[in-house]
Amino acid sequence: MSNFDQNFEHTRLNMLAQQHADILKTSGEVIFCAEEDEDRLSGASWKLEDDVFDEVSKSDFKLHLMELLDNLIQYRGQCNELPKKEGVVRFSGGEISIKWLPNGSTHLSQG
Length: 111
Hints:
Blueprint: H1 8-19, E1 28-34, E2 41-48, H2 53-58, H3 61-79, E3 86-92, E4 95-101, H4 107-110
Antiparallel strand pairs: 1-2, 1-3, 3-4
Helix pairs in contact: 1-3
């Protein structure tokens, strides 16, 4: 697979937003990184505005976001789309977005 679909990530994030609209009303961010030698999610760090972490976990939003990030990392790897190893997902007011960062940008990759 070599043709990267620019709409793929946006579409998948929107599907997740629709599925977990109540969770996305709160503000938060998830910093993530992939394995150095493999296109797979290896770690994530969560920051949430309110004390909603239990709700996030119980609703399966956490699980669904982690699975989606793993899929997006793999997809970028298959398409040789850079950057592909690190990024941040931000959500608030019902919106969700992803920003990919250069390798070594997050505290997760430096630890």
